[in-house]
Design a protein that fits this description.
heterodimer, A: 330 residues, eight-stranded mixed sheet, two-stranded antiparallel ribbon, 11 helices, 41% helix, 23% strand, globular, B: 56 residues, mainly beta, three-stranded antiparallel sheet, 5 strands
Chain lengths: 330, 56
């Protein structure tokens, strides 16, 4: 692995800050998401770094757990009053939520945020027609869009007619799934609002409400990619365009992690296993000037007898989780 | 063909629609129309292996 420490140090010098990096790998077949297990790892980094006037979080992620985003931001503010996010490329979904908690979002030309409209999957979701044993994910905003169509576009106002149309919805979607959808609809707004309140005053309630509404329901597609210009000018987020020098170093750092984690080539266990069929692969990194942690999957391929369908085998995961990476091995 | 086999913890829960019994350690039975199977996500963990949350 290539050492990223020099680039982290250079960004820290350019920004007069302490830098911590979170790379949620999106490699095909093996990836990481923002999840509660990152919090103790961040704590170890922040304790080693100590309190600082300014902390920069270098962020690359396609998303994850909503509540972890809020917890992470609160943890970062335990160590600084000025928390910024550096976005070289993707900071989607829960990553965008983390950005909402920053008093400054430094974005490169390729920097992208996304809407924060969650999907839910529970045992009460409708069955997948292609595989009735599996449940379909429901996008929370899709359900509210149905109600909006009925009320605002079709123009149904009568309470009895509305009740009938709601009845049709719960004929298709289990009432408890509808309940979960409503809770999630409220939760995502609450979390986004609380994140913005970490650096915005309550007197800016209307602005906060507008940002939350845009990110949750007004972009109409979960995969909508929000550029830095749109984030600054339309969403009114505290976005700063990175200087050419900073952008170059941020991109080099991203490229270093991309190479280390092999983000552009799929993980194929047979290709990376040793002669005994064992493999250990890193698929996410939390990094700072003083330590590096990686998320590792350790496993073994157990070959089964060849059949007329060709090679067959099983992959068993023997261990997984965050663990320190020796600096020399980075 | 590779199949993810993580015997220590399962990937899915199976819920019997008739009895309401929830099983988290099961073998898939063909033509099992009684059961509903849902991902049994371990939301604490970051890793996703072959699209699933690997168990260890």
């Amino acid at each position: 692995m290539v050492i990223a420490g020099d680039l982290i140090k250079r960004i820290g010098e350019m920004r007069q800050s302490r830098v911590i990096c979170y790379i949620g790998g999106d490699r095909q077949n093996i990836s990481t998401r923002i999840a509660p297990d990152i919090i103790p790892v961040f704590y170890k980094h922040l304790e080693q770094m100590g309190p600082s006037e300014r902390i920069d979080l270098f962020l690359f992620t396609k998303g994850g757990d909503v509540l972890t985003a809020l917890r992470l931001v609160h943890l970062l503010y335990e160590y600084t009053d000025r928390f910024s996010v550096l976005v070289p490329y993707k900071a989607y979904s829960a990553g965008t939520l983390v950005c909402l908690g920053a008093s400054e979002i430094v974005m490169g030309k390729l920097g992208e945020l996304s809407p924060v409209d969650p999907n839910i999957t529970s045992m009460f979701n409708p069955a997948d027609p292609a595989n009735p044993q599996m449940r379909l994910a429901i996008n929370v905003e899709d359900v509210y869009s149905y109600i909006s169509i009925v009320k605002d576009i079709v123009g149904v106002k009568n309470a009895e007619a509305l009740a009938g149309l709601f009845g049709r919805l719960v004929d298709q979607v289990h009432p408890l799934a509808v309940g979960t959808i409503h809770r999630t609809y409220s939760l995502i707004r609450l979390v986004a609002q609380r994140l913005l309140l970490t650096h915005m005053d309550l007197s800016r309630r209307d602005e906060i409400g507008e940002i939350v509404n845009t990110l949750t329901e007004k972009l109409f597609a979960h995969n909508y990619m929000i550029s830095r210009t749109e984030a600054r000018d339309t969403l009114k987020l505290p976005v700063v365009f990175s200087s050419p020098d900073l952008e170059a170093v941020m991109w080099e750092l991203y490229e270093t992690y991309k190479e280390n984690l092999q983000l552009e080539s799929p993980f194929i266990p047979e290709e990376e296993a040793d002669m005994g069929g064992r493999f250990s692969v890193c698929c996410g990194i939390i990094d700072s000037a003083l330590r590096t942690d990686g998320y590792f999957f350790d496993g073994i391929i157990q070959k089964a007898a060849a059949s007329n369908q060709g090679y067959q085998g099983n992959v068993s995961i023997t261990n997984q989780g965050w663990k320190p990476v020796e600096r020399s091995k980075r | 063909m590779l199949d993810l086999n993580t015997p220590k913890r399962p990937r899915y829960m199976k819920i019997s629609q008739k009895s309401g019994c929830i099983s988290v350690d099961y073998n898939l039975i063909e033509n099992d129309t009684d059961s509903v199977i849902v991902p049994y996500d371990d939301n604490e963990r970051s890793g996703l292996f072959l699209g699933c949350q690997g168990r260890a």
